[in-house]
Amino acid sequence: MRTELTSLLDKYEQRILGQNKNLRLLLSAILAGGHVLIEGVPGTGKTQMVRTLATLLGGDFNRIQFTPDLLPSDITGSMIYNMKEGSFETLKGPVFTNILLADEINRTPAKTQAALLEAMEEKQVTIQGKTYKLPEVFFVVATQNPIEFEGTYRLPEAQQDRFLFKLYIDFPAFDEEKNVVKQVVEQVFENHTSSNVLDVNSLLSIRKEIEKVTLGEGVLDYIMQIVRKTRESETIRFGASTRAAISIAKAAQAWAYLAGRDYVTPDDIKLVSKPALRHRIQLSPHAELEGITIDEIIEELVGSVPVPR
Fold it and tell me: Where are the beta strands (DSSP E) in the chain?
């Protein structure tokens, strides 16, 4: 399985240029069974990043463009009357897929956001009183535009906590961006269509292997100390929850597996802590006034915790 996973990652990095770390984090998230919130300006390849991953994994892919008039039933599905048969039938919504891209999730009201977030947590949806299970591999990637706030509905902290990671997608380096433009202009991408390297069943098998990755007592203490530090810092108004500690542990196991190891190191914890915590903590008013960023605070907190030997 590791060979196929390495091959998948290689193809992924060849297809999406300049985002190697985010690609690994995105793959780690689906391997850990979590979901991802992506923040980035338009035109940075967020949709392509998710669509390519779905293709390489051989899973079903759906995209929902979130708008202010989107209804919960537009996501989950509804009951319709079949005049030919003379009976009601269930029309399942786009949430019934393996990989779902929720584009600009903050453009829809809280009621519609909650419909998706409930499906993420429960792995099931209810349509007209009847419950339907979602696929065993169900991975949601939601995007937000950080520069446009008119007509948006901010995700509440409790709902952001449902995401394993929050990733920032920035512009690639000069040479990498030039390469992207060159390949699109020359239509190189069209001539190298990605095909699946793994399938859904293989992904489930890999998840079982990841559960066996060793998380030592010292490393577990290290995670707990980092999370508890977020609750003690004067620069943080609300600290991270227990779910944050679970997320760091699971993400670190997946990252270690991707690196070809069967054990988690403190460096793995350091690496996944930032994307796992940045959406789960809230800065105090004086920290915001001073212009301190959440990422800077997390780096400082992680650096203040003694590394286990």
Answer: 36-40, 61-65, 77-82, 87-92, 99-103, 124-127, 130-133, 139-144, 165-169, 236-238, 282-283
